[in-house]
Write a structure and sequence with these properties.
The complex is a heterodimer of chains A (146) and B (418). Helices cover 45% and strands 18% of the residues of chain A. Chain A contains seven helices and three strands; from the N terminus they run ααβββααααα. In chain A, strands 1-2-3 form a three-stranded antiparallel beta sheet. With 418 residues, chain B is α/β, with parallel strands linked by helices. Chain B is 39% helix and 13% strand. Chain B has a seven-stranded mixed beta sheet with strand order 2-8-7-6-5-3-4, with helices on both faces. The chains are: A alpha+beta (146), B alpha/beta (418). At the A-B interface, β1, β2, β3, α3 and α6 of A face α9, α11 and α13 of B. The complex binds pyridoxal-5'-phosphate and FE2/S2 (inorganic) cluster. The site of pyridoxal-5'-phosphate has 12 residues of chain B, from α4.
Chain lengths: 146, 418
């Protein structure tokens, strides 16, 4: 399968690669949300870490990904998109937007789903750790007042 | 004159010879006159065009037979190994069946779980038609032994089909021993020798084979043409034809012969026969160097399949913590394949690697590199560096590699698969 130029570009120059410390260190930090989705048996593991301000703004994001080029590009793009956004804004990102931006073919749609899932999962983790109430129960999220 | 350079400077390094090979220019040259000048139908018995075509086919049959140590009469031309396997397996099952069509208990067939689909699927069809089958589970080194076949034999076993060398791993099964066992037990023995013939010495007499499939495009011949060896004495093997018509190829394969293709196939067999020994040594040295260098430069690199009972040209290697398709993307200048799920339409990792029990994560991390006639030392040098660079790039991105470095045992983690 031929890859789109955007996938190749993200593959070669992935944005925001890394983590905010060892797995133990980040687990202890309340300002960091971690999302790990997928499984090595399925051939894909995506890890997204977000550093969130008290106002609920995603100040920084880092990813690591074991998966195909489209999965790497999807997670790299996801970190670009969520940086600077509030968690609630980040939650509105849909995998279909990633598919469109990267021109992913149908067999690679699940790689974009993985990216969307990792955003949700990281935000959920942050909410749990920081004590912020889940978005669904909070019609006027804190972040919108910020 | 057709250039014999394998690649122009900007085309990728071709390391996918187990998938198919470049047609040797000498083969193409031999074929060309049969399109435009000697274009006759070999069945036309009354004019020069027909005679020329027939001569071309019979010379090819001699070369094909010589390559496998058979008599020319014992070789049937087909469209390739898929057809040869189908004809051998279904054709023999029908003849040696123990009960009539439509009944159950028609006979037992033995094969292995990591055979090519062109063996497994015909056998699965036969299972729906009243036959029984055993799929031997390969051991971790991938080699099927005569002992394993012996353990699977039943009084009603009519056919054993075990490939000679595996197309994903290159592992070599105990073919002469399995042949001997089958002859002792009077069971028909078929071997899919697609990856073996042309690279390794073959003698259907000494190796006690009844039916053998091979294919032109895996040995520098054209696509869409292959051979089936059908033993004529001790025992005389009979096959039920799969397609009926003009009765060509001793009635076992009706249809006007693909004359130019068969001529090319014969030429390919001749070239392989002449070059086999020196070429085998050359490929083995390069393949071993490739593996040794990769293992030296990249930690957690595992060569899959038996370390030595392997064809000289195939290497199946897993690079831990790196997914195969992304790795292939990192080495776009190398044409190769991977057992990763991401590369397959079904999104399942290679059933061959899975059957060896090597673990799904390593199956996803595998590359199959297969060398061939025009592979050069310089290409191997470049491939080593490209693979090393790509693995390093991807490990920097890999959450699994981080866990490995932290000393976490990946097999102990409970993942939430999506
Ligand atoms: C072991 C084996 N059997 C059968 C086949 C099918 O051969 P063909 O492409 O000639 O039908 C292949 C090649 O794909 C193979 O490697
Ligand atoms: S991660 Fe497997 S196809 Fe993308």
């Amino acid at each position: 399968m031929a890859y789109s130029n955007k996938v190749i570009e993200h593959y070669e120059n992935p944005r925001n690669v890394g983590a905010f410390g060892t797995s133990k260190e980040v687990a202890a930090r309340k300002d960091i949300g971690i999302g790990i989705v997928g499984a090595p048996e399925c051939g894909d593991v995506m890890q997204l870490q977000i550093k969130v301000s008290e106002q609920g703004i995603i100040e920084d994001a880092k990813f690591k990904c074991f998966g195909c080029g489209s999965a790497i590009a999807s997670s790299s793009l996801a970190t670009e998109w969520i940086k600077g956004k509030t968690v609630d804004e980040a939650l509105t990102i849909r995998n279909t937007q990633i598919v469109e931006e990267l021109s992913l073919p149908p067999v690679k749609i699940h790689c974009s789903v993985l990216a969307e899932d990792s955003i949700r999962s990281a935000i959920e983790d942050w909410k749990k750790k920081s004590g912020a109430s889940p978005a669904s129960q909070s019609p006027m999220p804190v972040t919108q007042h910020a | 004159m057709i250039s014999s350079n394998s690649s122009t400077s900007n085309s990728p390094i071709y390391l996918d010879h187990a998938a198919t090979t470049r047609c040797d220019p000498k083969v193409v040259e031999a074929m060309l006159p049969y399109f435009t000048e000697m274009f006759g139908n070999a069945g036309s018995r009354n004019h020069q065009f027909g005679w020329q075509a027939e001569d071309g086919i019979e010379i090819a049959r001699e070369h094909a037979a010589k390559l496998i140590g058979a008599q020319a009469k014992e070789v049937i031309f087909t469209s390739g190994s898929t057809e040869s396997n189908n004809l051998a397996i279904k054709g023999a099952a029908e003849i040696y069946a123990r009960a009539a069509a439509g009944q159950t208990g028609r006979g037992h067939i033995i094969t292995a779980a990591h055979e090519h689909k062109a063996v497994l699927d015909p056998i699965r069809r036969l299972m729906r038609e009243g036959f029984d089958a055993t799929f031997i589970q390969p051991p971790p080194d991938g080699v099927i032994t005569a002992e394993m076949v012996k353990a699977a034999l039943r009084p009603d076993t009519i056919l054993v089909s075990i490939m000679w060398a595996n197309n994903e791993l290159g592992t070599i099964n105990e073919v002469p021993e399995i042949g001997r066992l089958c002859h002792e037990k009077e069971v028909i023995f078929h071997t899919d020798a697609t990856q073996w013939v042309g690279k390794m010495p073959t003698n259907v007499e000494a190796d006690q084979i009844d039916l053998l499939s091979w294919s032109g495009h895996k040995m520098y011949g054209p696509k869409g043409v292959g051979g089936l060896y059908v033993r004529r004495r001790k025992p005389r093997v009979r096959l039920e034809a799969l397609q009926d018509g003009g009765g060509q190829e001793r009635g076992m394969r009706s249809g006007t012969q693909n004359v130019s293709g068969i001529v090319g196939f014969g030429k390919a067999c001749e070239l392989c026969f002449n070059e086999m020994e020196s070429e085998g040594n050359r490929l083995l040295a390069m393949r071993n160097r490739l593996e040794a260098e990769l293992k030296k430069r990249i930690e957690v690199t595992v060569v899959n399949g038996h370390p030595t009972k392997r064809l000289p040209n195939i290497s199946n290697i897993s690079f831990g913590f790196v997914e195969g398709e992304s790795l292939m993307m990192g080495v776009r200048e190398i044409a190769c394949s991977s057992g990763s799920a991401c590369t397959s339409a079904s999104l399942e990792p290679s059933y061959v690697l899975k059957s060896l029990g090597i673990g799904d994560d390593l199956a996803h991390s595998s590359l199959r590199l297969s060398l061939g006639r025009w592979t050069t030392e310089a290409e191997i040098d470049s491939a080593i560096v490209m693979i090393e660079t790509a693995v390093n790039h991807l490990r920097r991105l890999s959450p699994l590699y981080d866990l490995h470095k932290e000393g976490v045992d990946l097999s102990k983690i409970v993942w939430q698969a999506h």
